[in-house]
Design goal:
Shape: globular
Number of helices: 18
Number of domains: 1
Number of strands: 3
Structural class: mainly alpha
Strand order of the largest sheet: 1-2-3
Bound molecules: iron/sulfur cluster
Largest sheet: 3 strands, antiparallel
Oligomer: single chain
């Protein structure tokens, strides 16, 4: 190692105790987003039941649009092409952009700090580890093709949107009958789930118990998008080979199965910046999450603040500028729900 590089690492001066508390800090952030998601879901169920059964009016929680990422991707392209920030699911577009910014600057923090499915996935494999003593190891020859599945799913959607859809097609979809109540259709899908869909979900849960992060690592297109964006992130896990004792605690603890002990900078798309490796490293000033060139380590607290700040900044600006609530009123929702119940109704019509 050159003298200059050694000097740079000396400048890190990171007290590893800064990372010891990061698992607890990360769990607190995950619980914050889990509670926000459950609250949003509960309010949305009340809203749909008010539309169906009447009674006291319930305001629709716009945050539910976070579960419409394909619609948000279309809305993003439509906004760029036409300058129209759609009024059907504006909150979905705002949240999508917030998560894209997170991915671009803080790797896959969305997966390990924000996403409730990521949280569930994490505790499923940890449960599996407790029950069976370990998770099922996936050999490399199988791991690579399986990991590419989520990128194929992402490419399938992105190709359709970016290559095949012009402004007119996008407008027709975004303002069309299906997208206007896509959130309600999604809720009803889970409320009246078919046996086949239920079996698929149960199989995914069981696979997530035995295989670490099965859904996130192999199938989630959102995870693929975050992994791709994370390649451009200036912040990465960095190891100082000068002080590393090659104990391999980092590699053994990494939920993404990254060989941390053998790299100086983790560029892998699978790194979720969960900071597990930095919290277990026994050597001071050895493993850190830092910004390229600046060599300025980011503690767990700093990552937590940045993740929550990006979220609050985007949602706050959206609320202040009138880009949070959508433009569909309750009467239209009620009419469209009645049309949904009518078998004569053409679902593609306005
Ligand atoms: S390299 Fe570290 S931060 Fe990245 S996924 Fe593995 S344990 Fe988490
Ligand atoms: S845990 Fe720290 S000391 Fe051990 S191999 Fe990883 S970086 Fe090196």
């Amino acid at each position: 190692m050159s003298e200059k590089k050694v000097h740079d690492f000396e400048k890190l001066k990171l007290n590893t105790s800064d990372y010891k508390s990061s698992p607890k800090i990360r769990l607190a952030v995950q619980l914050f987003f889990l509670i926000a998601t459950l609250y949003t879901g509960w309010r949305f169920v009340l809203f749909v039941s008010y539309l169906q059964e009447g009674g006291e009016a319930v305001t629709r929680p716009p945050g539910v649009e976070a579960f419409l990422p394909i619609s948000s991707l279309m809305a993003l392209k439509y906004w760029v092409l036409t300058g129209d920030f759609n009024s059907i699911h504006p909150a979905g577009l705002v949240l999508f952009m917030a998560f894209v910014v997170m991915g671009l600057f803080l790797k896959r923090t969305f997966c390990s700090w924000v996403c409730p499915v990521g949280l569930l996935s994490e505790y499923l494999w940890k449960g599996g580890q407790k029950i069976f003593g370990k998770n099922l190891p996936i050999p490399r020859w199988l791991d690579y093709p399986l990991r590419s599945l989520k990128y194929l799913i992402l490419i399938f959607f992105a190709w359709g949107i970016f290559m095949d859809m012009g402004a007119e097609d996008l407008r027709n979809f975004i303002y069309g009958a299906y997208n206007r109540i896509a959130d309600i259709k999604m809720m009803l899908f889970f409320a009246h789930i078919s046996t086949f869909s239920l079996v698929v979900i149960i199989v995914l849960i069981l696979l997530s118990v035995v295989i670490k992060n099965f859904w996130c690592r192999y199938l989630c297109p959102y995870g693929a998008l975050m992994g791709f964006l994370g390649l451009f992130s200036p912040a990465k896990i960095t190891r100082n080979p000068e002080t590393c004792t090659d104990c391999r605690a980092c590699t053994e603890s990494c939920p993404a199965s990254i060989q941390v002990h053998s790299k100086t900078r983790i560029r892998s798309d699978e790194c979720t910046a969960c900071l597990t490796c930095t919290s277990v490293c026994p050597e001071p000033d050895t493993l850190s999450f830092n910004i390229y060139k600046q060599k300025k380590p980011m503690s767990g607290k700093m990552v937590a603040v940045l993740v929550v700040l990006i979220f609050l900044l985007f949602t706050g600006i959206a609320r202040l500028t009138g880009h949070w609530q959508n433009s569909i009123n309750d009467d239209e929702y009620k009419t469209r729900m009645e049309q949904m119940d009518n078998p004569e109704y053409n679902h593609t019509g306005e």
